[in-house]
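A further point concerns the way the authors explain their paired sequence and structure data. For illustration, here is how one protein appears when written out as sequence plus structure tokens:
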Amino acid sequence: MGLTVDRYRELEQPQALRRKDVVLMATVTSFEELEHPTKSELRQFAELFAPLFNASSDEARRQAVAALSRSAHVPSAVAFFIASQPIAVSAPFLIHSPCLDDETLVTIARTQGGEHARTIVQRENLSTTVVDALVGLRHARSVAKSVTKPAAKHAAATPALSEAAPELAEAAESEGRHLREEALRTQIKQLAAHLSRPSSDRLGLRTITTVQEALLVRFARGREADSFATTLADTLSASRWLAERIMLDISGHQLATTLKGLGAGLEESLFILERFYSHLREIIGDVCRSQILWDTLDAEECAARIEAWRRADQYTYATPVQKPDAAEPVVRTSASQRPKLRAVR
């Protein structure tokens, strides 16, 4: 007799559905208790979460997402999966999760629409990168509201101050006006910076051109490994040997590192990786292995790795200028003597 109406409704649910809800919450709770999860535990959680989530009720989904929004160890694939859910489910995660980096937030705002973008605005300490992206997506009004939030709170306190002391109220109103003006100036500067900054500006980093990217996609589509390696070497301004070594990494990690470090597009990069490395097409939950691999890479670290490879490559293949009377002759390896690159299966 002490059961609530909600409890009665819960009992009316099919037994299998309630069991899956329990399994989902038990999985999330167990993951929360891991202070420092290992790579194996993170991978296992990523593989289990999506199927359990999809099979559970809406209420269980909301509870699971709310719990994970406090965790600092949510795998990137799971974080992207949750952030892409309908806003009624994903809102707490978008606002509070420390596992959403700038790149993921911008991607979610671009692909999921206005509701997700307006929710992202509610995060504390939004970076300039995310703010600029939201401005570019014409969510400036929402961004302006978040920027001027301190001023709004200050203005809301003015009536109480006016009752206590008119002089304090006047000072508070003046300060609130000043804050609003500063927020507006900041917003205008951000908008101007966004409009004036060229899309190809990667702060001096080596960047793939549109033509090079199109050629890589074309050769990947036909699985033309030799032509792909030649184009990749040209893109890196490096030897063909370095391009071949990158492609011969059967995990696909080195090619993914190269593409991300060069600033290649997401869709094009995933297509290339899946064409040359078939295991990256495998679906884990609702996410391809190629996407999981891509999300684990940091763009700046990838760019630094590329430059390290290029320096080593230049050192290895630089041909020293020798005098005619040198004690030993210069030995050069012809192209026919190098191992031929085979198409990666």
In short: The longest helix spans residues 166-196. The first strand starts at residue 283 and ends at 284. The radius of gyration is 27 Å. The mean pLDDT is 76.
